[in-house]
Amino acid sequence: MNHHPLAVLFAGKRLLRSESPLPGHVFNELVRLQLLKAIPCLQAKGSHYLCGRCGNEDLSLFGSHPCARCKATTCTYCRNCIQLGKMSSCQFLYEWQGELPPFPFVKKSLHWQGQLSSGQKRAADAVVEAVKMPKEVLIWAVCGAGKTEIMFHGLEEAFKRGFRVLLATPRTDVVKELYPRLQKSFPHIIITALYGGSKDRHSFAQLIVATTHQAMRFYEAFDVVIVDEVDAFPFSYDKSLQFAVEHAKKQTASTIYLSATPSTVLRKTPNLEVVKIPKRFHGHPLPVPQLTWIGNWQKQVKKNTLPRKLLIWFETMISSKKTVLLFVPSVSYLSTISSLLKANSIPHKTVHANDPNRHEAVASFRKQLFPVMVTTTILERGVTFPNVQVAVLGAENDVFTESALVQIAGRVGRSATHASGDVVFFHYGTTIAMKSARRHILQMNEEGRGL
């Protein structure tokens, strides 16, 4: 049976009427022909509601207001996923009921000529087996182990079988970095990148690289789901994102989790195979953080002074023609630190999550057009810079968890030509997180030496 030509717009998705690109009369005809099934956006469950898109059941995350659509004085809607379009009690999600368009079986899709290290090969084989079985596997790999390349043979296996794949990651920056790499490695596979503001929302791609928020639009669509940086905010903290990824899978599907810092809960999941790679692809050990006390740095900054040890470190790095990532605890420190760097004639830029020029600044820093980038934790993961050195100012702050500090340290020494470098946690008192991060890195290096 041939699939309907409009199936590509809806297959594997649950969409609001407002998300359809079709004219109203065409959409209504698909509903009349029962090719689109209407599902209530919100389901009443006793005294509360369940959101059909994000799984929200928290009463505090629902709102109500007089509705122009249904004329009700109190129409309820979900506030949790409203950024993807309003899910209200008078509206429906629409799911395709017709024949599904097939994907081709591509025997040789991978056009990557690189070589895997022994650790990468072991993990890559586990991913291939997970695709074949299907089953769940966690690839626990140190920062800089080459997790993307580990996926390549598993993706090739999926495309051989005509499978559809979702690669979900918590952050837009990572989607934008992975997308061109995957296009280059799989030039004959249709690939789409989905994130807030992306334009290609309606293409029917075999491989979708998306933020975990975008997974909410899919339902039983994917044979293989890869969750990158499974420990990262917001995915690790937001049950609705975990709900979305689960619902995006077909009833029988492979799941591959990638992380340098998986939680204990994930590592101990029943029936989850865990493959550990404690060594980077180039074989060199992870740079070990140095913990440097600088006293009450906040007081010094308020007096328009950079901590002396930090300033000396900066001068040493810049005189050695090295680039520096300086992490600060929050956006509120960026302008002050920027002013102090400027006063000390240190060329730099600042970035944070809501900075409209963030991607341009990151691209310029990668080209080494300026020596210092001051950033929040937005750049703690998913980005690679050549020959970069890292400092954390105020490493004692709660935002710098063990996981965050391990990831931050993992920005250094990622290339074979610059396999070592400086990682310094400048602090006003050591924390358990700082000590644990250092111990974590030393432990991985110890395990890596045995391979």
Automatic annotation (TrEMBL):
Residue stretches making up the Helicase C-terminal domain: 310-451
InterPro entries tied to this protein: Helicase/UvrB_N, Helicase_ATP-bd, Helicase_C-like, P-loop_NTPase
UniProtKB keywords: ATP-binding, DNA-binding, Nucleotide-binding
GO BP: any one term: double-strand break repair
Gene3D superfamilies for this protein: P-loop containing nucleotide triphosphate hydrolases (3.40.50.300)
GO MF terms, alphabetically ordered: 3'-5' DNA helicase activity; ATP binding; DNA binding; hydrolase activity
Keyword Nucleotide-binding listed: yes
Pfam families hit by this protein: Helicase_C, ResIII
Domain annotation Helicase ATP-binding: ranges: 128-280
PANTHER family assigned: COMF OPERON PROTEIN 1 (PTHR30580:SF1), PRIMOSOMAL PROTEIN N (PTHR30580)
Protein name, as recorded: ComF operon protein A
